[in-house]
Every structure is written in structure tokens, then in C-alpha cells.
TrEMBL record, chain A:
UniProt GO BP: phosphorelay signal transduction system
Stored Gene3D superfamilies: 3.40.50.2300
Organism, as annotated: Pontibacter mangrovi
Domain Response regulatory stretches: 4-132
Stated name of the protein: Response regulator
Chain positions with 4-aspartylphosphate modification: D63
Automatic annotation (TrEMBL), chain B:
Every PAC domain range: 92-143
UniProt name for this protein: histidine kinase
The keyword Phosphoprotein belongs to this UniProt entry's keyword annotation: yes
PANTHER family tied to this protein: PAC DOMAIN-CONTAINING PROTEIN, PHYTOCHROME-LIKE PROTEIN CPH1
EC assignment: 2.7.13.3
Species this chain originates from: Pontibacter mangrovi
Amino acid sequence: MFKKVYIVDDDEVSIFLAEAIMEAECFAAECKGYLDAQKALNDLLESAHNGNPDALPEIIFLDLNMPFLSGWDFLEALVPVERDLKDRCRIYILTSSVDEQERRRAANTALVAGFLQKPLEDELLLQLKQCS
Amino acid sequence: MFGTTSPSKQTSSDLASLRLERLNRLLFNHYPDAVYTIGMDNCFHTVNHAACQVLQREPNELIGQPFYLSIHPEHWEEAAHYFRAAKDGHAQRYQAVVRSSSGESVFLDVTNFPLKVGQEMVGVFGIAKDITVQKRHEQELLRTTQELQRQNNELELFRKMIAHDFRSPIARLLGLGKLLQKDNVPPASRQTAITALLQSAQQLDAMVQDLNQVLTLHHQGDEPREWCNLSFITQQCLDNLKEEIQSAKATITLHSSSELELFTVKAFLASIIQNLLSNALKYRSKDRLPQISISLTQQGQEVLIAVTDNGTGMDLDQVGPSLFRMYKRFHRDVDGKGLGLYLVKEQVRLLQGRVEVSSAPDLGTTFTVTLPMQS
């Protein structure tokens, strides 16, 4: 079981769904849902700057299509702390989009560990648990 | 003997020169394009038949008159520039627009040569081909290309809409369905899931209806226009929104300078006003009661419809050009489908109007739609 997982999504139902399924699968001890991407970013940057690796989540599920701060903007803002995040924190894109362009873009983004399509499936959570 | 030629030779050379001169004159007069000479004083010296036809003038109305009187005023400057260059001894080829006596614009492909006698510049000799028909075709082609480009962009927008926006409620429905299949879900979560399931289905349904509305809009454009009383239509929109206005405890003020009548597509006009009003109500501030003012004014041959609210407002630098995009939402607390402003923009475009927005966070927003009185 993971210690801490972040879900960053502007859609309340998506956060509820991800949390509910993780709970049912005993996936993480703590799930933190962020409706506000900026807040999630601030928290991450703070933990990274403070050199406090335990405060970092092991997994982040990141939505792409969000107002004000999109998932791509979010990833870009994390580039300066890329080294602090590496090996401590895996970022998975979790989107409802079926746009092939976005999948390709994700494949070329170093910080992205994988591109997942909503809804989050329990088999997938099992796989993630196994490769941890 | 020096300097003399035989009489017989002289006659034949005169004949030849005579023929050439006549030939030149024939050619000059009957050449299908306008041919002319202009003196150093900028006045027509000679004009052929075609030149008179193009300008719809008699030769005596042109000869001795400055050439630029025939040029379209918007093209004076460039015509003067090319003409000076020709007078300086450089042949010029350019496009110009002249005006015939009836005021019609004629596009010309002009070639001007410097006209010299010996070493002395005496004026300009020119040929001008009427290219109005080609020019119109070119403009039409350009318009068609632009329209095609616009439609292509729209198609890409629709593709993105299906890939992103329609997938979103579908993914939720799938996820919620799968969650409900599990037997270890707590009752509270189960209840939330059922509510969310219904909401997502409703959202998907609304999106399908919206899409249908947008696609129908795209098949319109040559809608029948009719005279519409602006205050009357605004009042109708307010009546439609009566419940929302009451529940928001909103104060609405309507300023209308006079009875404004527009010759336009009634359904578009009503939809524009209703969408702006509905937005003003939707994005109200939590801290104060909504005050919405509608101002209807005439400015020349245009009508200004301004809707001002004291709502949440927005930072336009942040929002930028995506404000009018389909399914783009900027307020996460409000149940917006994000289609309203897109519809406003499209309908205003179809009515050859424009829409402007000014806004400040936490102060409010003003949308101003400008429509031609007759579109």
C-alpha cells in the first residue's frame, strides 16, 4: 500500500471516483484530492524545496484539461524540481481525453511515468502496486 | 552626291512611314486596352477609344485634364509614386484602381513607359488592361479560402470537443458504473455515486443537445431577417429568465435611448441577449446581490447592446482568447456548460457584428455586442 497519493483534477466527481476506487482496492493510506491545481503545485514545490522527501506523494494522478493551470502547465512548473521528484514521486496523467496528440506529448515528457485513461481501473491499480 | 537620295526611293520611304504612322494610329485607336500619353504637366495628352470606355468619358473630357482625377482617391498616393518613377525614366508596371464617371471602380494592370524625344523626357506613354473581372474572382477566391480555413479550424475544434469534452462524462459514467458493481463500497459513497451517475448522464445529454444546436447554427446564415424591436426582445429574454432573476435576488435595470429596430435574425438576437443575461446571473458574486444593467444604444448605423454585472469578473489577461471557446469554463463553482459565449460569438459573427468584453476580478464584467441595424 502506498503512503500518500495526490489526485489533481478540477472535476469533483473524478476525484471522488479515484478516491473511492483506491479505497476499495486499499491502494493508499492517504489520498489527497486537489480541485485546485495551483494549490497542489504549491504543496509539491514546498515539499521539494524543504528537502522533505517524506512529505512528497509517491504517486500523482494528474488531469490535463483544467482551467487556469492545465496539466501541461503543472508539469512545466515542476521542471525546476525534477531531480527532487525523481525516484520519489511518479506522475501519471489521468485524463478522459482520447486525443492521440496528448498521448504522444506525454511520452516525450520526462516527468510523466504513464498516460492513463479515465476511468481509473482496479487492474491498473493492482499493476501500479506491484511495480512499486 | 552627299545628302540626297533618289526620288524613287524617297517616295517609297514616305509611303512606308505613312503606312507605319497610320498603322500606329489604327493600333492606338483600336487596341482593346486603354492606351494613353500623359505630359510632364500630369495631364492626358492622348487617349484611345478603350481608355474613354474604361473611364466612361469623351476624349475631350480627358485630354488636358490631370490623370489623377480618374484615379480612385484611396490609390492616389501609390499612383503618384509610380507615375513619378516613370517620369524619372523608369518603366513601371503596377495595379491601380480608377473611377469611371458613374463612380464605378475599375481595376487596371498598368504599364507606363517614359516618353522621350531625343534625350528629353516629354511625358509618359502607358497601356492599362482592365482586370476588374479577374480581381473580383481573386477576391471571391480569397473569401472562399478564408471561409474554408475557418470551417477547417472549426472542424478541428469539433474533433477536440469529441476527444476531450464528450469523453469526460462518458469516462465518469463508466467509472461510476464499475464502482457501483463493487460490493465493498460504503453506503455513503454508493449514494454519492448514484447521484453523480445521474448528473453525468444529464450533462452528456445537455452536451448532445448543445452540439446539435451548434451544428444547426452552422447550416444557417441565410436565415430570413425581419424587423425586431430591441427593447421588446430584451424584455422577452428577461421574462424567460424570471425564475433565475428571482432566486438570485437580482436587480435589473434597462436603459434604452429610443425604440430601436433592427433588421436581423430574431432567433439569433434573442439568443445573444439571453446568453449574456444568463451569464451575468450565473457568475454573480457570493458577497453581494447581483445588479445587472442592460444598455441599448444606437451609434450611427449600429446598435450597441451592453450587459454589465457586478459579479465575480475575471482576469482577461489570464483568460485570453479562449473565453469564447466551446466548453471552456473559468469558474469551477458554477455549473456552466461553457457553450453560451461560443454561441454568442458565432451568432454575432453571422450577423456581421462584433463582441467586446471588459472585466476585472471581483468587480464585474461588461459584454458589449455591436450589431449592424441591417445585416
